[in-house]
Amino acid sequence: MKRSFGSLNLTRLCISSACLFVVLTTVPGHADSIAAFSFTSSNYRVDDNDTAQLGYNFTTGSTPITVTALGYINDGFNGTHAVALFRVDTQQIVPGAMSTVTTVGGGPTSTTFSYTDLSSPITLDAYTQYQIVSQFFAGEHYYTQAQGFISQFGLTLDTAVYSDYGDPPASPQFAISSYAPNTPGNFGPNFKILTPDTSLTPVPELSSIYLVASGLVSFAVSRLRKN
Description:
By secondary structure, the protein is an alpha+beta fold. It has two helices and 14 strands; from the N terminus they run αββββββββββββββα. The protein has helices at about 1-25, 205-225; strands at about 35, 35-40, 40-45, 50-60, 65-75, 80-85, 90-100, 115-125, 130-135, 140-145, 150, 155-165, 175-180, 190-195. The strands form four sheets. The chain has a six-stranded antiparallel sheet, with no helix packed on it. The protein has a four-stranded antiparallel sheet with strand order 1-14-5-8, with no helix packed on it. A hairpin with a 4-residue loop joins β6 (about 80-85) and β7. α1 packs antiparallel against α2.
């Protein structure tokens, strides 16, 4: 009877290990980080020779968004810009959402951005308006009237924003002036996002699964021998 009881426990633990394997191997995968906004061409503005802040307001969709990096367009100046994200309702910076970005290459026809990873990813709430803003220096150019514009995962670009002409702060502040562009504009800044992608094949953590499952089986065998 003791042997039968031990065998029953061993069977139960083996079944539990199998169930654990199934659970751990079905954790949703994640897509790589991608640019929140992109475009195929734009108007390269060369008519603004003052320092300022520029950027745009945007609204999230029905799903919270994970931001992994902040960026600035490769405008050909190889400059360094501070970029930050703010909540529009509080006009306060999102904790952890500021980076310094140094661009590389580019020019009048650029559609690419340089990015700096955040120290830790941050989450933007669903159905919430945010602002991304960056420093803009005298002699630099920026991009408006984007064509072939694409936004990701329910994001909506709302209005272009600017402030502090002639005297931008050392670190980004909430921009208080805005205008609604005929087509998306004021790049400038951008950001990368990461969201669950259920179309990806899950990749199990095999080492973790092996350690947990083998530990359970070893425990069951030792109990069986004692019985």
